[in-house]
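User: As part of a screening pipeline, I want to sanity-check one entry by hand. Below is the sequence and the SMILES for 2-acetamido-2-deoxy-beta-D-glucopyranose. Please return the complex as structure tokens so I can compare it with the automated output.
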Amino acid sequence: MATTLSCCFTLALFMVILMATPSLSLDNMNVIDKCWRGNPLWRSQQQQLAKCSIGFAGKMINNIGKDVVKYKVIDPFDDPLNPKSGTLRYGTTMIKGKVRITFKNSMTITLQRPLLLSNFTTIDGHGVDVHIIGVGCLLVYQATNIIIHGLRIHHCKAQPPSTMMDAIRLVTARKVWIDHNTLYECQDGLLDVTRGSTNITVSNNWFRNQDKVMLLRHDDGHLRDKNMKVTIIFNHFGPKVRHGYAHVANNFYQWWEQYAIGGSMSPSIKSEANVFVAPSGVGNKEVTWRKGEKGIWKFYSVGDVFKNGASFSKQTGVGGAKPNYNQEQNFKVVDARSVKKLTSESGVLRCSRSLIC
Ligand SMILES: *[C@@H]1O[C@H](CO)[C@@H](O)[C@H](O)[C@H]1NC(C)=O
Ligand SMILES: *[C@@H]1O[C@H](CO)[C@@H](O)[C@H](O)[C@H]1NC(C)=O
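Assistant: Here is the complex for your manual check:
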């Protein structure tokens, strides 16, 4: 009897260990991650990531194909005046046409100037630990078809004559997908989307330790920003919007300082199935912040979950401001109760040799 029991106990223990071994469970993944991480052949088809985007960026199919130059960064050095082959800056500025930039190993790149990304550039730090710090940092200026994936961008600072100090700044950028990055502690904001930028998807990012996280804004005189279209999905933390339209869905917001979603200059924001956990104690429990004239705000909240006393002062007219996605942009917004789970791997994915990620 005793032997039988102990045998069963061993077996049960073995099964528990087996079940607890980290493995890719598709159930825990959101629709973007499932699309590539769920592919068993992923390792040999990493370009296919480009087909997994959703939201206003659509599918990034212009970033794949036979004409894409594969470039590997082997040197963390940065010389803006004379970029050396093997460095990140060489890959983003010296290679003509479509380029897919990956990294040979983990490294910290200290930028001496903001890094300008050209059309049809993918930067993918997946699988290694890439930190980008220094002056800048990433600038997408008048460019289109850009993927920024798997990077840790932080401690970005200004240095005259450059005044840039965001982790990522989009200026007149179109069709940009920013996915699975960890952004934190920059001098200004973490992500600044401005001047006629549109068709942007910001997904699976972790915006850490910063109050001014994301600014979707307009500069005076840039009425084009009224057409700004941004999808913000599966991130930790959220945006401030001026003009334009943001569909903010399935994000996890926790402990904001002043507000979680802000707006000025009559933006339209549809907040859908997000989780808002208000700061404890005397902090501001209100999710939204709005500046300027009354009555022109279009803030809608549908299916959001509010915790710790969080509140959302919204417009009447439930379900307003539809994103009107086309087929390639469209996705199913999930129930807010799954959001914590579906954003639990936001930011750069932690990988090891033994664990496919
Ligand atoms: C990107 O392409 C457009 C034309 O489609 C061109 O006007 C622009 O200068 C290019 N930008 C960069 C940064 O290469
Ligand atoms: C944005 O995407 C839509 C749908 O793909 C497209 O019709 C439109 O031309 C794009 N806008 C710009 C400014 O590229």
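Points to compare against the pipeline: The CA atoms of residues 35 and 52 lie 6 Å apart. The longest helix spans residues 2-20.
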